[in-house]
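call fold(seq) -> tokens
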Amino acid sequence: MGRRLSGVIGRFPALVLVCLVGCTSAPGAVRPATTAPQVTASPAQSRYGPFSGQPLGPGSGIRLVVRGNDPADPAPAILNVDTGALTPVTGLPDPDPRLTFSTFVHGGHVVITVSGPAADQGRLYLLKDDEARELATGWYAFPAFDDSGFWITDRPAPGGPCTVRKQAEDGRLLRRPRWSHCGALPFLDTPYGLHIRHRDESILLTHDSLRKTVRYPQIVAATSRELLVRQPGGNLALVVPGTEKERAISRPAGAGEIKDGEAGPDGRYIAVPFLAPTAGPHEHLDVWVLDTRTLEWARLPSMPVPVDVKTRVMRWTPDGRLVLAGAFVTTTDAYPRESDYAGMIATWSPGEQALSIRRLPVTWQTSLAIIP
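ret:
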């Protein structure tokens, strides 16, 4: 498998992954309040162009799960960013064109789903180093917010109802299966309930009965203390569900459509991506970081940048670095060619004035996941 994946890599241009960490070199951050004006970027930061920054040196310790675009060998492998070495993931079914491999990262866990024909329930695996260990059968799995187990969504029988259950890593059932709407299955756990999306709304379900509790236009990110939510009208707030605790936050002006954010390991910083469409097949990515202590926004250096929509991923590392990965456009042309996409990795910690960037030896179509 490693030789086949290497062959794929050799036939295509490199893909750009970007690791970003912390806050930005944006002009003076503004402390938003209920009546405060929106934060606006300076004209110098409103240009749209390729990433820029300093070279990323050795010792980053970053690893990625990569999956090539060769149908004969779709299984994932692990890329060591520092050395460029690829290590096949063991413990998974043999590569088969009928199988689909997908990788998801939640907290400190990497879950690999393997699905096949429509009647197949699918199999869920946990990645431990370079070994995949079977967790359960089902559609999707994500850890409980307190790491007390895993929530599994499934449809046990073709055409039957969908279910949600909780189980331990060793397979012990912790919460019996309950029926759930197949079009609104939970995909994330928070201290305040399971997060689902239904009819363009974010809804929280109770952990015990899956009863609906509160709803928002969008839950952007969750920390152990509060939720960052988008409110009617587009502004943001940090809220504690079930209480009257709410801190209003003005969103950065002209920052585009807000997407799901990522809270840092200690909950102080929340990275929020904003996307703006372009005339071409890509979008402009604009990442801002909210300091939940001061309620100040900071813009990541080099933002905004053109990015391929399908490959964009973002993750904080345990030591406080924000990792942004995907295929990025290396030209200012409105309609870039395939050869204009490239792969990089960039790291950035709060207070740094520039990204640290490195190009990666994988094709720009490669699917990526950042290992915590």
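The helical segments are 2-11.
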